[in-house]
Amino acid sequence: MFAGIWKGYNWQESHVGYVTNGVHMPTWAASEWKAFYTEHLGAQVFENQSDPEAWKGIFKVKDEDIWNMRMALKNKFINFVRREFKARWLANQGDPSAVMEIVDKINPNALIIGFARRFATYKRAHLLFTDLDRLDKIVNNEKFPVQFIYSGKAHPADGAGQGLIKRIKEISKMPQFLGKIIFLEDYNMIVAKRLVTGVDIWLNTPTRPLEASGTSGEKAEMNGVLNFSVLDGWWYEGYRFNEKAGWSLTDKRTFTDQAQQDKLDAATIYSMLENEIVPLYFKKNYKGFSPEWIQYIKRSIGRIAPHFTMKRQLDDYISRFYEPEARRCHALAAHNFKEAREIVEWKENFASRWNGIQILGSEFTESNAQGAARTGDRFDVCCTVNTNGLGDSLGVELVMYKDKDGVSTYSGRKDLVITGHEGDIYHYELKDQMKEAGVFRYSLRMYPKNDRLPHRQDFAYVRWF
Ligand SMILES: *Cc1c(COP(=O)(O)O)cnc(C)c1O
Fold first, then answer.
1. Which of 65, 159, 388, 445 could hold 356 in an S-S bridge, CB 3.0 to 4.6 Å?
2. What is the pTM assigned to this prediction?
3. 414-433 tens-digit pLDDT
4. How far is the CA of 310 from the centre of ligand 1 (A)?
């Protein structure tokens, strides 16, 4: 995002950092789960929620306790849908028998998949409906029933988003999808909480790479609800903590044409449901649940959820930004802003002399003069610069790039040291060794050098040789 702002620097050298979003666990974990965590992991888990160690007790919990909890919340969700939406559907849909059919068909023994969010078009709520025949077979498999619950709102000015909602409602009224694809109106925090605590799987299918975060998936994690999502937004990081705690669609685009990409993604979703996810869910033991599914839940609670709480988010803000910023602020302001004044003076002097700097020469020599360089070979870079009175305030560095598959990627930088000077004429040198195999490019660059600057972009003068 910030690649082009500081000319002369690579984006990997940028000081701009980030903090991944998290969600507030006391708000988004069901009260039943909070009591469960207190009982099995101890109240410490709330204090230490961003530390995976605090969650490791989840792996010792009996499988049936997890399953019973999931079923209790699933039933609570189904009762909520029956209660809250029956009256509205009866008022709006006209046909009472169709409404009763929907309500009766919501099945706690089905694999229930939830999808709820703003209906911004990049979120691709329509993706599942790309091949209705194939979807028909998935939801109407008598042995392994699957249901989808949708909810969400479109912005009042977003006609395309509203169109998607209309289309999903139409599909939900087709005979083969009645009670199998359900759309809940008036998405809000209450509906969101029932959904992210009550379904089995949370689905997210954004257009890569447009998902900023997708926080509802983080809410699902702390409720034992597994994520199935494009590797984008938070799941790009979340999935990597444990790949047997949810499912992903690759982050790579295959097609530049979005319609083709949508088709491919839809086919991948169907096939993963058919071959992987549905069979895993219904691989039930004599106690009525799939032990492997419970392992997925345990890993998702124990290994992924801790990294996506608001506590972790605040920890990151504090340690990466607020504390360093506070320390710097105190240092700059101490003794009537002594440090701040000195830095300003140094910067003004540097800026006034910058244009007068002259590069007088540079040289690169390899120890192995005959033939191609090998790893372990030594090399020597030196240069001479008229620093125009700047002396050791002027840094000179070697910047390296690695070429691979036609792409040149920044791979590091190393300072040259001053070996001597005659007045303003300074000699710099770096003696080093080839450490890695491959094709490298290198160049020299000079910059204002001062340990008291917070980072290079604070005073972004830079010149390539
Ligand atoms: C969590 C939440 C959102 C945001 O969800 P995303 O997955 O980030 O799109 C939107 N609306 C409600 C009501 C929510 O609870």
1. 388
2. 0.88
3. 999 999 999 999 999 999 99
4. 15
